[in-house]
Amino acid sequence: MRFGILVTLLLSIVLTGCFGTSGISLSKGNYDIEPPPSIHGAMRHIGKNDSTRIAIASFGAGKSKRFAGRIHNDSQRAGANDNIELPEMDGQITYNLPMLSYFCEWRDIYGTDQGNEWGAGFGLFPYPYVHLFGAINTSISEVGAFALLNASIESVDYEGVAVEAPGTYRDYELGDYDDSPRNVHETDRLVLRGNAEIGAFLNFFIKDFTLSYVPSVYFPWLFWNDLGEYNTTFFYPMLLMHEFQVGYNISKWNVGLAFRDVVSNKLSGNYWQVRLNVAYYF
Questions:
Q1: Which of 2, 178, 185, 233 has the maximum number of C-beta atoms within 10 A of its C-beta?
Q2: What's the predicted TM-score (pTM) here?
Q3: CB-based contact 77:88 (threshold 8 Å)
């Protein structure tokens, strides 16, 4: 019995792979994108083999902005047994960045014997994220790099020429599906996506003040070959972010005022945001 169930599952997986793929040549795409936090490290000196924990809250405001530009769809095969060729074409893509944003985070930081540090954190912005970083930490400065991963639910409007593959083996055998290219148009489609950010941070400590600079690159659509059930052929445009902060240490608190500038590698637009960052050290 168990062997029969296992064979059935394996055959289902294999046969599913034989049905083909669903693809789209995108003519228009409209995405709601919220940039993630910039990671500033410890923002103060961490001694050898010392450790600290930080609770962080941040609130940002800026004029809502639309980034727009062109993307290129390569031709691809889709449908049953991938026997339909979708056309090569250009499309228009737009990112919508919000007026208001916030994030909250818990961060653990550990010093090493060599005077370096490493840390990890998790939080919401409003979607969950995790990050790791490492840095060289001295009494006057902190230099490091970080990587952040998160999952988000993006609202998408899109149009294009698409073809769907059969969903089951029965559909494939009976031809109970549409195996020809057709125009599709969908609005307010919520799609769960994985995203990533990589960057660096540079902090200077001047008595009770901290000066910070954080450049980073955000990949808002980490798995770029998928739009819902459809495969795409283009790499989603990245966001390039720069954040400058002036902070002040008050006992176990650090209060910072930050300015963030966001541009894209392929889309036209510029997004400024002012942020209030508050950190408490345990």
A1: 233
A2: 0.87
A3: no
